[in-house]
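4.2 Preliminary Data

To establish feasibility before requesting continued support, the project team ran the inverse folding procedure on a target of 287 residues. The structure was first converted into the token representation described in Section 3, and no sequence information of any kind was made available to the design step. The complete token record follows.
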């Protein structure tokens, strides 16, 4: 075990990449202000200037955001969304069809990101000399892995959506969350059928991706969140028996972030949670 003073921002990112099985820093993540000799880290789902000033005043050595900042939030962020194509192919969607659906969503996200003041928070971190990184895709991969495994071990195609919700609600992060997994399309008595865990794709796939899943015979989509316009359209057009379960944004993100924090604590980094991370007792089996 390593203790204080040996961690730098490369190592923090490296631990996240290793845990997620990634070999390079994804486009939605980045080391924005590098630093070394790190002992105390402040983690948040979203980091704004307020959290940076708090971190400086309270003696933190580094701030780790989940949601993209700086280069991680630029229009290139959409590069990671193409991972959704692989997830769709796994569920039996033909690759060209998957590509076309993801392309629609990438286009709308690109235009939205194009408008953003992407360097606002990273600029302040640079001015006050506070190491800052954001790690987005890696913990989302860990959240997805966790939920997929839970579904594989506890749910069959005949399980009702109500039964699936019971399993999801028992996840410690969900149990402690104010927002709970909810079914937004379909009936709780519907069998789940084939379940697609549509997470770790940069952002949700929205109408183009989710309607394609339903067309390919997926019975239930699990999503962290969905935009209102996409939801209204999907709800109107979803085939009978199809289900959408929204697992909740903060608890779903917290699953992966907590597991990253536990790994970093093993390496001697003291971690404090803020900005929406739902803290839970460390799981014994490490997953
Ligand atoms: Fe996330
Ligand atoms: Fe998120």
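Position-by-position output of the design step:
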């Amino acid at each position: 075990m390593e203790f204080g003073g040996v961690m730098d921002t490369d190592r923090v990112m490296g631990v996240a990449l290793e845990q997620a099985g990634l070999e390079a820093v994804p486009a939605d993540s980045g080391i924005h202000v590098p630093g070394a000799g790190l002992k105390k880290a402040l983690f948040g789902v979203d980091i704004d200037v307020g959290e940076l000033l708090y971190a400086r005043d309270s003696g933190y050595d580094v701030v780790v955001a989940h949601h993209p900042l700086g280069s991680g939030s630029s229009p290139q962020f959409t590069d990671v969304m193409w991972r959704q194509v692989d997830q769709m192919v796994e569920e039996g969607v033909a690759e060209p069809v998957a590509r076309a659906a993801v392309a629609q969503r990438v286009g709308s996200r690109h235009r939205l990101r194009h408008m953003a003041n992407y360097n606002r928070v990273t600029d302040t971190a640079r001015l006050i000399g506070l190491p800052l990184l954001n790690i987005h895709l890696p913990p989302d991969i860990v959240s997805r892995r966790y939920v997929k495994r839970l579904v594989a071990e506890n749910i069959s195609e005949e399980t009702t959506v109500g039964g699936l919700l019971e399993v999801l609600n028992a996840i410690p992060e969900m149990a402690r969350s104010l927002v709970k997994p909810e079914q937004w399309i379909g009936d709780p008595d519907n069998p789940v059928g084939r379940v697609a865990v549509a997470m770790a794709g940069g952002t949700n796939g929205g109408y183009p991706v989710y309607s394609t899943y339903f067309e390919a015979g997926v019975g239930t989509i699990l999503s962290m969140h969905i935009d209102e316009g996409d939801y209204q359209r999907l709800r109107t057009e979803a085939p009978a028996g199809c289900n959408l379960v929204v697992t909740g944004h903060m608890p779903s993100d917290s699953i992966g972030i907590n597991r990253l924090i536990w790994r970093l604590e093993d390496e001697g980094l003291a971690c404090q949670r803020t900005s929406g991370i739902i803290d839970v007792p460390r799981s014994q089996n490490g997953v």
